Structure formats: structure tokens, C-alpha cells
């Protein structure tokens, strides 16, 4: 939800990210600095977080429960970073993609095909933003606004994933 009135106060770089832990998280450990498709790179960050959890047996509802505090942290870090940049939902802020993808992976079949389909579905819904995702993206501001549309995109991806794997 970038409006014409929003302009970057500062161009984000590694110094910006390292100056504040909120920026480091909001930018997905630096993945949001990628010039092309930062949301896709941010989504990929979920995998190195997911695989160790998966190896420890954390999946399904346990992983979904872990996404709740990560979502709440995201509301804060995305808000702080958006205000520092002067742009509410700057493309490099990708913590929302990280958390959304983790949620989709929580319910993906534990196979490479399952994990790849989870990625494709989440990116599809995050990019296309069918109703009501686009409605929330355009009307809800702050860190909550950054996070909520990706949560809804994750729920859409989970639903379609469940239909496909039935």
C-alpha cells in the first residue's frame, strides 16, 4: 500500500539493516535488499528456518502455533521499518513473506513436491492478491497491514494445497 505521498526517507542498505534488529528481521535477514523480486527471495528465507524445525519434528499445528508470535513480531518490526523508510509497505520488507510461507509449509506434505507446490501457491496468492487479500493490502496500514494480507494469502494457499493433495 504505497501511496504517491510516500517517499523513501532513506535508501535501505546493509548499514540500515544492521543499525536496528527490527530492520534486519523486516528485511528477512537481508533478502529484502535484492533488487529483483525481493518478496520471492523473502519467501525462500522460510526454507532454511523450516527444514531444521521439520527435522526436529515441528510441523503441522505446532509450526502454525509458532507462526503466531512470529506474526506479532512482524507487526512490530514491519511498522518500525516502514516508519524509518517513510513507506508503509516497502517491497524490501519481507518478514510477512517469511511468516506466511512458514505457515503454508506447516501443512504441506513432507515431500519436495509438497514444498515446491507450497511455494508456488503462496507466491501466486501473494502476487495476484485476489479478494479479500487486495482489499486488506489497500486499506489496512502499519505493520499489521503489512502482515495481514500475507496471512490471508497463506490461508488461501493452504486451502488450495489441501484440495490438490486430497
TrEMBL record:
Function field: Lipid phosphatase which dephosphorylates phosphatidylglycerophosphate (PGP) to phosphatidylglycerol (PG).
Keyword Metal-binding among record annotations: yes
EC number: 3.1.3.27
Reactions the enzyme catalyzes: a 1,2-diacyl-sn-glycero-3-phospho-(1'-sn-glycero-3'-phosphate) + H2O = a 1,2-diacyl-sn-glycero-3-phospho-(1'-sn-glycerol) + phosphate
Top-level taxonomic group: Bacteria
Annotated protein name in UniProt: Phosphatidylglycerophosphatase A
Organism: Chromobacterium amazonense
Pathway stated in the Swiss-Prot or TrEMBL entry: Phospholipid metabolism; phosphatidylglycerol biosynthesis; phosphatidylglycerol from CDP-diacylglycerol: step 2/2
Transmembrane segments: 58-78, 98-122, 142-165
Keywords: Cell inner membrane, Cell membrane, Hydrolase, Lipid degradation, Lipid metabolism, Magnesium, Membrane, Metal-binding, Phospholipid degradation, Phospholipid metabolism, Transmembrane, Transmembrane helix
